[in-house]
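Pipeline run #58 for the internal structure catalog. This entry was flagged by the ingest filter as a single-chain record with no existing model, so it goes straight to prediction. Upstream metadata was stripped on purpose; only the residue string is passed forward. Reviewer on rotation: M.T. Logging verbosity set to normal.
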Amino acid sequence: MESPEIPSNTSHQLRLRPLEQHNDPETEQPNMATSPGHQTSKPIEMTPSTSEANGIQQEPESIPVNMVESKKKKKKTSRSKIKRGKNKPTGFEEYYVDAPITPQEYAEGREIYDVRIEDAILRFQKKRRIENDRRDIFLKYLQYGGVDISPKMFTGTDQRDLKEMDSEGILLARAQTSIAQEQLNLQIDFNAVVKGYLTSYFPYYFNPETEDMVKLATVTIWNFLTYILYHDVVPEYKANIEEARKSCDIAGKELWKNQQFTAKGPGDFNSACSTLFGGVFFDLYVEDNQWNNSKDDTVRMNNEIARKVVKFALAGAGIDRQAVQFQELANQDALRAMRVEDIDGFEVTAIIFPDDETKEFYQVHAPDLHPVGRMLAKAYRDPGKPDIDLSPEEKLQWEEGGAPALEFDFFLEESLLKLCYPGMKVITSVWELNCGFHYFDEVFTAYCSIYTVLANDLMIGWKKPKDLRMGDDREADETDDEEGKDSKGKETEGPSC
């Protein structure tokens, strides 16, 4: 049986249901286009229907479909380290430079910086992100140079007051540094302050234990001096500031060597001489380890090893006269050492590293010892220590240039020679052996070649003295006046009922 043919002009009209009601038969409506519940739905325009008379199948009319999308949850994104301040440039990086300034900014800066250098200090702290360690070093440098960094009393500002101020007023209100009026006209020596602070005060006060801490101080001060030059704060001191920046570079290279030399000195040879002939290590070692110090576990050099160290140093790096005279006096048991008096240490003048022949000699005959070289030095007297006790005649003679010029010839291991440089000052006791060479004892400290002693550290925390007696009289007068007022008040008052 054949199926009846369906005319093309009698196509069935199909109606589509909304997308959200496709799987819910209960909510299906007979006529979705006229449903009052979908008046706010957004219609989707379909292709317009063609005439059925032309024999083309009629397409469905526009069908309203609800396009309201569900609300998406916002993802919680953490701020980057740069936005949080971490890894943000501080302005003290090696290749950091200030951005170019416009002529208008330069003119404004000239009006500001012509007043006093205090404004330059405030704006430098504003332009840089200074961490706590760097801030401590920088503030101490300012205080060493005469800037007051003490907290300002009775100058607190409320947030409401800050809102009414401009940027200039806020900067001045939050300032932590100031310069006294009586110090504004004093002459400034940037180079002297830098040398005094970095070579004398900074190693003593902060005691840097790492190379990074040394760079933290030198880079901070160098950056501040560069900021002053860039903004032309004090053009009359331009040459002096340039010298101060060079001093920062020198101190950055020498300070860490000084710290290492102080910790590793005096070396094997000088320790051996001190053990045998006299010094801080003399008689510290007990044979056969018969006595044990529970508080000190340092391995001490015994006399046998000390003799070996001294003999190979003289044979490998010493001159013939020293070696022959040492052998003769040793055979006669006549070796004696005397401490050099009226000096605080020595200043290095020349360094002679061990040559290949000396290294080969040690490698063949004493591979367990370190090859030694030579270091030439002269006597040094620390200007930061009290003067040597001299008679009036000797003092006058020394002031006129008649002080004895002593020269020393030391033996030192190569690892320590690498830490030395001409101009280095070592504070230690020096001993002279009667065979013609010297040795030094425990190293107390070492100073740079530009070591400078100033009295600025004595002025830190200094306050102008006042007459305490006048204060007592004023207090007494005030108490007398108050007592008189109280007595008068009591006389005028009537008896209580």
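catalog note: Residues 266-287+299-455 form one domain.
catalog note: The chain has 16 helices and ten strands.
status: ready for reviewer M.T.
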